[in-house]
Amino acid sequence: MIPELGNFALYIAFALSILLSIFPAIGVRQNNARLMAMAPNLSIGLFVFTLFSFSCLVYAFLTDDFTVVNVAQNSNSALPNQYKFAASFGSHEGSFLLWLLMQSGWLFAVAIMSKGLPVDMRTRILTVLGWVCVGFYAYIIISSNPFERTLPYFPVDGRDLNPLLQDIGMIIHPPLLYMGYVGLSVSFAFAIAALLSGNLDSTWAKWSRPWTAAAWAFLTLGITVGSWWAYSELGWGGWWFWDPVENASFMPWLVATALLHSLAVSEKRNAFKSWTVFLAIAAFSLSLLGTFLVRSGVIVSVHAFASDPERGIFILILLALVIGGSLLLYSLRAGNIKSFGKFSIFSRESMLWGNNVLLIAATMVVLMGTLLPLVHKEIGLGTISIGEPFFNQMFTYLIVPFALLLGIAPLVRWKQDKLNNFVTKPVVVIISSVVLTLLWLKVEFNDINLLAALGTCLAVWVVLFTLLELKQTSKKVSLFKLPLSHYSMSLGHIGLAFVIAGVALTSQYSVERDVKMNTGDSAELRGYQFTFDKIKNIEGPNYDGWAAVISVTKQDKPVATMLAEKRFYPVQRNTMTEAAIDDGFFRDIYISLGERLPDGAWALRLYVKPYVRWIWLGGIIVAFAGGLTLFDRRYRNKNVAKVTAQ
Amino acid sequence: MNPRRKKRLFIIAASISFLGAATGLMLYGLSQNIDLFYTPSEILQGKDLGNGKIGAKPQIGQRLRIGGMVVEGSVVRSEHNLDVSFRLTDTGPEVTVKYTGILPDLFREGQGIVAQGILISADTIEATEVLAKHDEEYMPPELAEKMKGIKHVKPEY
Lengths: 646, 157
Description:
Order of helices and strands of chain B: HEHEEEEEEH
Oligomer: heterodimer
Order of helices and strands of chain A: HHHHHHHHHHHHEHHHHEEEEEEEEEHH
Low-confidence stretches of chain B: 134-138, 149-157
Number of domains of chain B: 2
Distance between the termini of chain B: 73 Å
Number of helices of chain B: 3
Number of strands of chain B: 7
Shape of chain A: flat
Mean pLDDT of chain A: 89
Number of strands of chain A: 10
Helix content of chain A: 55-70%
Shape of chain B: elongated
CATH superfamily of the largest domain in chain B: Nucleic acid-binding proteins
Number of helices of chain A: 18
Radius of gyration of chain A: 26 Å
Structural class of chain B: alpha+beta
Radius of gyration of chain B: 22 Å
Distance between the termini of chain A: 54 Å
Strand content of chain B: 25-35%
Strand order of the largest sheet of chain B: 2-4-5-7-6
Structural class of chain A: alpha+beta
Largest interface: A-B, 51 and 43 residues
Largest sheet of chain A: 5 strands, antiparallel
Largest sheet of chain B: 5 strands, mixed, barrel
């Protein structure tokens, strides 16, 4: 009964999305206030029914309703409750319902928080989101209904959730990532609405900015959590694999980052406007492209859902409609957009232009590396794979100019600045960065690796310049009166510096060793002594297995006692490695238990990974900085209303 | 030319030259990092290009990916360290894979796997990475397609 209600609610939500996409649009056309007023109410209804539908699915999972195909395939009565909840979005169908919940949630948020916008603009934005919803709801109803039944021959128990997904990461990573993905549809809707109205002034950028920042912050956090999860769960000690699905989330992030910076120029300087609109379209298109890649099964990936060509084709059509339609509109209207802000070659604007060019180049690299194997195969040249070295090499090239620009840009004035002002400072900063870096690496590792030094140096450069900029600003404005968005910028840049330093140090100074050990054996790695104390049986709620107890000492002082597990999940007949991690601000010790060898010894892989936490710490700081923008006084509702009234 | 146009021209020229340089670097990077996928019979007999033509065999020293089923009883481990060797097959011919380190959880005899490595002799590969997927029914899609000519589908029940 409950699943049918959920299904029914989904149909109602679909119907509401159709209404939302038609009537308010007619209202705008005919200037009919009553029709336009339907938009917010329909949006709220859409959200309520989707929330209800999603709750029904969660209920079916929590109560082990194995008459529902989705539950039978992805859950099990022995599964702990929190993972039953996570299993509700562990499958393709369930995750798409979560996607819709997020989509309607954003719609709801826009409906209730955009009261300050002019009525026609607000209606247009909601209508565009309504169009997007029609596509998605049609998709789930036609090809991926999560409420299908197994009746009359339902199984007694379910096939269980993939053991890899039974982790806290599964509960938080998909919702955060989807919030970000789907949130980009709001920036898209703002851009399309502005194109439709033909009214693209700097107030438009002001309205769009907090929404873009919010979506971007979620996306940042989602990607960061995903990276941390892969690290702790997959047991290879890696934190980024350039897997097509990771790339699918990284591309929209890169473009959204460019968009965020370009919006700043549009808002403050009334320049870059048609480019900003283009970026908003591109960011959402890439998030759709990512969905297509992940869910159609056209590419080989560790994340792939069970593939189904029909689903792929549907998303492809949706993608074609969104990209084709919006680019057509763009080409018709963009010619009318006039950017009034003039600027010289050396100015903040041109620095931000550099930021955009580099970010787009990075997107191109990722896009190329992700799609080339697909193209290569389709045109009959055979199956290929593009290795991690390609991406790593390209990003090393790109990050150097990017970080150098990023350091200076906040100090450069809008419109025009003198190049002469920027001779002494960079020289002083670069010398101090190099000295600091060399000292740091010498003390910490007693060995200077060139690439690590380069990365660390860039990170120090960014931090020093950010602090310098704050100091300089404090001469003009008290730091207490500085707008939050300024702090958001400084903090975001410092967060990125943490990421750069973390990536550079951990990728160059990590050490690993595969060893064969019997109980009592010891092995040494970078000054740490690993002793294999014993092996014991473990029993979990839905698995059993072995745990190796390993004590780690450094110079005879105990550091940690670690449990590296090998779990066996009987329902799926899956074996899984649960790595032991001793985390620290400066280094992680990471042990994964391999297989038991024929002579009774065990294969173990030991890692020492310096500064790996900095990557996620940096990611969290960046996301937090993005969130901070929302609380800037400029973007509060009241002020938006004032601007509109002017 | 008025200054506004001049500036525009400068920006456009800078963008294009930057993109050109970026594309050049990217293509160079790509040419170094593309790994072709082979099955064991393709390594020994060359790729079947359709209509009776046979492509070139991979060269010794080439980086490549191989996918195949682990031959029953072919896994040999060293007594002293983590060296392991096994043979892969698809439709008959067998290729030996040598590897040092921990094999993935789902590595079993009879299971489909993908290995990345370097061809060190006509029928031996030194692998740097061995992949098996977390699914009992799994066969690497690249392999399933080549072996059966059909796409692998998850079993219904």
